[in-house]
């Protein structure tokens, strides 16, 4: 039985670092919540907290809801992830999954081979002008429904009491014994009493 669907894109022309931070922000989210969040990022109503690749990233008040200080609004990364979520949703419908119970179980962003261009500098020099594309993959799974236990099982479990075994310590021998063990008690009657 299928309970998961996936979506992946290779060599996407979108910054790796921005996309990685955006992907981490939606990891574990419900699909509807993730869609709303990414649309909010595009219109700058919510930010993406930059936790790893945050050199030179400014602080913003919106990052406080994530327990962080630095954040940005990577519009292009959010749009790419929205397209991938839409693709994953279509795959889920094709498999016959319940789309409203999908959760982003796994999302991963990897570096793709850099693409080369050139920029012209002073005194006739040429420097590289590289882009940093990325591969993205995500797996969505149906969230397990929390089903309460039947009352009969709960009632039966309450009746069963755990077996409590007490151990008594011999003061002069340093050994332990079980008082319910009659053989030991018979042999050590004088010590026990």
UniProtKB/TrEMBL annotation:
One GO MF term: structural constituent of ribosome
GO terms (BP aspect): cytoplasmic translation
A Gene Ontology term for the protein's cellular component: cytosolic large ribosomal subunit
Recorded superkingdom: Eukaryota
PROSITE patterns found in the cross-reference section: RIBOSOMAL_L22
Gene3D superfamilies noted in UniProt: Ribosomal protein L22/L17
Keywords: Ribonucleoprotein, Ribosomal protein
Pfam family membership, one: Ribosomal_L22
Claim: Repeat is one of the keywords in the record: no
InterPro entries linked to this entry: Ribosomal_uL22, Ribosomal_uL22_arc-type, Ribosomal_uL22_CS, Ribosomal_uL22_euk/arc, Ribosomal_uL22_sf
Keyword Ribonucleoprotein applies: yes
Family according to the record: Belongs to the universal ribosomal protein uL22 family.
Protein name as catalogued: Large ribosomal subunit protein uL22
Source organism of this protein record: Gasterosteus aculeatus aculeatus (three-spined stickleback)
């Amino acid at each position: 039985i299928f309970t998961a669907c996936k979506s992946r894109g290779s060599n996407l022309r979108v910054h790796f670092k921005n996309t990685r931070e955006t992907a981490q922000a939606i990891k574990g989210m419900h699909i509807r919540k993730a869609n709303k969040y990414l649309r909010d990022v595009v219109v700058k109503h919510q930010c993406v907290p930059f936790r790893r690749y945050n050199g030179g990233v400014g602080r913003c008040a919106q990052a406080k809801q994530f327990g962080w200080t630095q954040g940005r609004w990577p519009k292009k990364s959010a749009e790419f992830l929205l397209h991938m979520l839409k693709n994953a949703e279509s795959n889920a419908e094709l498999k016959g999954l319940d789309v409203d119970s999908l959760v982003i179980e796994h999302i991963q962003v990897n570096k793709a081979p850099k693409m080369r261009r050139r920029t012209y500098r002073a005194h006739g020099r040429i420097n590289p002008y590289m882009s940093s594309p990325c591969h993205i993959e995500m797996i969505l799974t149906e969230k397990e429904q929390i089903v309460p236990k039947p009352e009969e099982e709960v009632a039966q479990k309450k009746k069963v009491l755990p077996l409590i075994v007490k151990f008594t310590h011999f003061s002069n021998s340093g050994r332990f014994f079980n008082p319910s063990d009659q053989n030991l008690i018979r042999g050590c009657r004088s010590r026990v009493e």
